[in-house]
Amino acid sequence: MSHAYVHRLHWMRLTLGLLWLCGCAGTTAVQQTHPLIAAEGAEKTQVYFIRPDPGFLGMNDRPAHISLGGSALLDLAKGQYTVLSLRPGSAEMKIESYTVAGPQNTITGVSTTRQLTLAAGTTQYLLFELVPQGGLSGYVVAARDVSREQALALSRGLNPIGAAIQAPLQ
């Protein structure tokens, strides 16, 4: 092999490795046509979706896929938060993510569900965090309600996305 070929191969591997790492991180994306997103002027509940960045955790760094009422609502990336105006009511929230589990370190899809009750004219703060499943089962992303004060503290250093740019946690 020539020196030039080895040099090009090295740079190609490095570039592909960096692209792969960047692809794992992802970004937050909202499905603006979701049926539970409140229409302009309608009754609504403001819901902040907050996902801190705990550091590099491999597969657990990928965005969490969040469905509400059976329809995809958003993909929430670590280190970011957003706010959505949702229609009041109650709906099942499903959070899907990936983890590395078992003695073979297999990439596995995992999910959690919970009922989300939205009261008109209120603001809710949801924290999405990694929760260990125990043993060699890896982690799952789960959501819990936090107070406004906790949300303010947790959002420091996070990137606001979408509507949160105009309505940041302050």
Beta-strand residue fraction = 35-45%
Q: How are the strands ordered across the major sheet?
A: 1-4-3-6-7
Q: Strand-and-helix sequence, N→C?
A: HEEEEEEEEEHE
Total count of strands? 10
Enumerate the spans where pLDDT stays under 50 for 5 or more consecutive residues: 14-24
**Could you state the oligomeric state of the chains shown?**
single chain
Instruction: Tell me the Rg in angstroms.
Output: 19 Å
Shape descriptor: globular
Structural class of the secondary structure composition?
alpha+beta
Written description of the protein model:
This protein is an alpha+beta fold. 18% of the residues lie in helices and 42% in strands. It has two helices and ten strands. It has helices at 3-25, 148-155, and strands spanning 29-30, 45-51, 64-68, 71-76, 80-86, 89-101, 106-118, 123-132, 139-145, 159-160. The chain has a five-stranded antiparallel beta sheet with strand order 1-4-3-6-7, with no helix packed on it. A hairpin with a 6-residue loop joins strand 8 and strand 9 (139-145). The longest helix is centred in the first third of the chain and has 23 residues, at 3-25. The radius of gyration is 19 Å and the shape is globular. The N and C termini lie far apart (59 Å).
